[in-house]
Design a protein that fits this description.
Blueprint: H1 26-34, H2 37-49, H3 66-81, E1 88-97, E2 107-116, E3 125-132, H4 154-167, E4 175-181, H5 189-200, E5 204-211, E6 229-233, H6 243-252, H7 259-274, E7 279-283, H8 296-300, E8 305-310, E9 323-325, E10 328-330, H9 339-358, E11 364-369, E12 377-382, E13 391-398, E14 406-410, E15 414-417, E16 424-431, E17 444-446
Helix pairs in contact: 1-9, 2-4, 2-9, 3-4, 4-9, 7-9
Length: 448
């Protein structure tokens, strides 16, 4: 076994199984340092200046409404494209939404997209960062009154813009899409349009990071103030799982190992590697209690997606008309933002997008041998389809642990571990010379 323990198994003082990876890719580290609280604040101030960004609002006024807002985002993307050597292209992808739930007349809905094309022509993977451009008042059908939407979801849109600004100056083997969708408050129309299109056109979407409400540090009622924690929501049983799939998941005890759960674990590890004074809290449910967001249409189409949201939401500043009652200021105003907190949450996105897009694709045909009863566990896999591989990480965790606890490096395509498959879960990642890891793959069953 010693010959396999070549690279990494570091521990924290809180648990002999916990791990810290302190090695940072210098390119990603420098990109993270470029994330600017001042830039983020300027984006949000501009978004708020449009008065309302209701999906139902005017599309013809050059200074007010959703039309002016999406044109401004497109302008920012096009500015960044000038420094991208032709790799970044931007557009407003439109569709007509006919009267339906929360839509009282036909509207032209537009998602503002910037695509940073990957440099490897054989690598078709796509990674998406998303926020929603639209805002709302207490009455979701009110399309004329002010709806500043500084945090919901000016914060997510600002993170998308800032990541595009920084990452457009770099190249990655895989493709990254930066998108500000519309129609979220009317029932996820923009993300549904994009996810359905991606499914129809067979986009190879590997991960979606949906950012919704990521820029304020305090809650009402509980009065908690904290800008050092952020939540990542991920589904357990996949939305597209068949009865046969669910039977297999139950038989193998993989209720906590969906692809979205693995993405959430990955986000926590990478974010805490690159972003100081930020702890990622993994929330093991698809979204907040009885609520939803723009990652859901991707999940419903079989893609891997998570939602990133601030730790302590303040409902006085969500879905509220701007007003003052009993000494309490209501409304989603810029004065309630914490731009340092937003900087950290934007850096979380950037570090993960960069690490994923630089990494090789996942190992293929990952299997665990079960032809004989054994207290050892034998894993095997094939090299990934894309990327230059230095080797592979074997991930190990006890059955009750929410996070991977050990990472063992090997340059081979198989390994036998002195850990019982009855008591431990395993995963395999590809890794390159820069230390960029793919998402983990949970082994399937090998019987012969």
């Amino acid at each position: 076994m010693k010959k396999y323990l070549l690279f990494l198994t570091l521990f924290t003082t809180t648990s002999v199984f916990s791990q810290i990876i302190s090695n940072r890719d210098p390119e990603i580290e420098n990109m993270v340092k470029e994330v600017s609280a001042d830039s983020l604040q300027s984006y949000i101030n501009t978004l708020v200046s449009f008065g309302t960004r209701s999906t139902l609002s005017t599309q013809t006024d050059s200074k007010r409404g959703i039309g002016a807002a999406r044109n401004w985002v497109l302008q920012k993307f096009n500015e960044f494209a000038k420094n991208a050597d032709g790799r970044l292209t931007a557009m407003i992808d439109t569709t007509t939404i006919h009267p339906s739930t929360r839509i009282n007349e036909p509207i032209l809905l537009g998602n503002v997209m910037a695509t940073l094309k990957g440099t490897d022509p054989n690598d078709h993977r796509i990674f998406i960062i998303s926020g929603h451009l639209d805002s709302r008042r207490s009455d979701v059908m009110n399309k004329t009154g002010d709806a500043p939407g500084a945090n919901d979801d000016g914060s997510g849109t600002a993170a998308v813009i800032e990541c595009a600004r920084i990452m457009s100056k770099h190249s990655f083997p895989a493709t990254i899409i930066f998108v500000a969708v519309s129609g979220e408050e009317q029932r996820l129309y923009g993300s549904t349009f994009m996810a359905n299109k991606a499914k129809k056109e067979n986009w190879d979407i590997t991960a979606v990071l949906n950012n919704d409400i990521i820029g304020s540090n305090n809650s009402n009622q509980t009065n908690i103030i904290n800008n050092t924690e952020v939540r990542v929501f991920s589904e357990g049983i996949p939305a597209t799982a068949t009865e046969k799939d669910i039977t297999k998941i139950r038989a193998l005890g993989l209720e906590n190992d969906s692809k979205s759960r693995e993405l959430a674990r990955y986000i926590k590890e990478v974010a805490e590697r690159y972003v100081d004074n930020l702890e990622v809290k993994l929330i093991y449910r698809t979204d907040r209690f009885l609520r939803g967001g723009d990652h859901l249409p991707y999940l419903q189409n079989g893609f891997t997606a998570v939602r990133i949201t601030e730790m302590n939401e303040n409902f006085n500043h969500q879905h509220q008309d701007v007003r003052k009652e009993n000494g309490i200021q209501y409304g989603d105003l810029p004065q309630f933002m914490d731009y340092e907190y937003l900087r950290k949450n934007t850096a979380l996105n950037l570090a993960n997008l960069a690490n994923l897009a630089k990494a090789p694709s996942v190992p293929r045909d990952v299997k665990i041998d079960v032809k004989n009863l054994s207290n050892n566990s034998s894993l095997s896999w094939q090299t990934p389809e894309n990327g230059k591989v230095k080797g592979f990480y074997i991930l190990i965790r006890e059955s009750q642990s929410p996070m991977w606890q050990k990472k063992i490096f090997t340059s081979k395509n198989s390994i036998t571990l002195p850990y019982s498959k009855d008591n431990f879960f395993f995963g395999v990642q590809s890794v390159n010379k820069s230390g960029n890891e793919s998402l983990p793959v949970i082994p399937a069953i090998k019987r012969n």
